[in-house]
Design goal:
Blueprint: E1 15-17, E2 25-27, E3 30-32, E4 35-41, E5 44-50, H1 53-64, H2 71-91, E6 114-117, E7 122-125, H3 129-137, E8 150-152, E9 159-162, E10 165-168, E11 174-176, H4 177-185, H5 190-198
Parallel strand pairs: 8-11
Antiparallel strand pairs: 1-4, 2-3, 3-6, 4-5, 6-7, 9-10
Amino acid sequence: MEPGRWYPISTAQISRIIPSNNGLVQVALNLYPNQVEIRSWNNRAIAINVLPLEEYLRSVVPNEMPASWHLDALKAQAVAARSYAINTQRQRKWGDAPYDLVSDTRDQVYVGFYRYDPQANRTIPLIHPRSDQAVSATTGYMLRPGFKGYYRARLQRNWISWGNGFMPVSDGQHLDQEMTQKMASMGWNWLQILSWWYRDTPIRP
């Protein structure tokens, strides 16, 4: 296949698109790295992006937490997202489906690396150097078995006295993203943040 051309693909069989020279594969308006598998599933055609975990996280982290936030908040998010992805894959959440995770909030928001804007005739980045840095700096780190890596933008908060102020009580299972940003801005590093929310220190197996 030649780059820049459109080709019809039959869903009667499984087809895998493998771009050359680190190219990207466009599905609808989004461009994805590595390989894309096209197949029929539950009477409809689906596209599955097949890629390494760390590449997947490059898109997840800035689409789950603003890349402009504190770097230690982004690092904590990267470890939580990595742990969620690994645990979801191991537990086969989607049963016999031919994919490990879905690309929306039922799992984690994954939109590839770029989106094509047809009106402006240009691509818009969906990844960011700061979140890339957070993923790279925490490569391999994950929560210990038993911690799924759940997180929410804002959790229901109960407060306890902490130093000269108050801190939200952790349930040991979820990370509060908004409070994580505040903690990082106050000087907490990503290991301290994760230890607070999950009551345990992440590991690098």
